[in-house]
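Subgroup meeting minutes
Present: P.N., E.W., G.H.
Scribe: E.W.

1. P.N. recapped why we're keeping a running log of single-chain structure predictions: easier to compare across weeks, and new members can see raw inputs and outputs side by side.
2. G.H. added today's entry (287 aa).
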Amino acid sequence: MRAKFEYLAPTSLDEACALLQEHEGDAKLLAGGTALVMWLRMGLLSPGYVIDLENVPGLAGITYDAADGLRIGAGVKHRDLELCPEVREHYPLLRETFYKVAQPRIRLMATVGGNLSHGDPMTDPGASFIALDAEVTLRGSRGERTVSVEDFFVDYYETALEPDEILTSIHVPPPAGPAWSHIKFTPRSEEDFATVGVAVTLTGAGNRCDDVRIALNSVGPTIFRAHAAEDVLRGRDLTPARIEEAGAAAADASDPIEDVRGSSDYKRDLTAVFVRRALEQAAAKLG
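Output recorded in log:
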């Protein structure tokens, strides 16, 4: 196990991307450090180079525009997003989600971009960004591109980031007045990773579902969208039977591992229950 690494502190995005390209496969980015430092201490990672993004301009800030929506710099801390007045007013799903992440000391350090780039399927923010149809901007030595958050998560701890790319910002479209819900089950404490996490956005009127997005974390190799469950509800009345069917469809789409939080079958059962509860909560917010 490598005991030491070289610390690099670029002062521009171009320099950071060039360093990633130069040390491809042997470098890791440092943002908030809540995940990377822990993995280094545990010996799960041993990079030759750690590239600190602290001095790179353009990665912080939260802006909201009614026509454009919400733009979040990748370096924004969880706590700053949680407390942002525009987020609280226009994107209550995000406020609720980030309020539930770990505890304040973690939220004061962890960055939004770092969380997504880590690709951990057990974290909560990715599911809510998927439910809100968000996209990320990725910057590399060959230019810039955007990817939907739904397509950003590729496999277990694997994202769409190329070796020389950095996630620079997240864009959330203007809210269309959807009803929403975020619900998670933590077996030991509120600071623990969820056994199952569900984020839902719902549009419609009365008992009618015009559109719905259901995203799940902690019950598969990636954070993912439950398309089959959505198809059960879209364009139909939200009857108890259909909501129950949607929960079952989401459970069928899940692929949880067995660990200290429970067996695979137990987690599938929880998925069905919590998707149903999340849909009931969102449906209750419809006008």
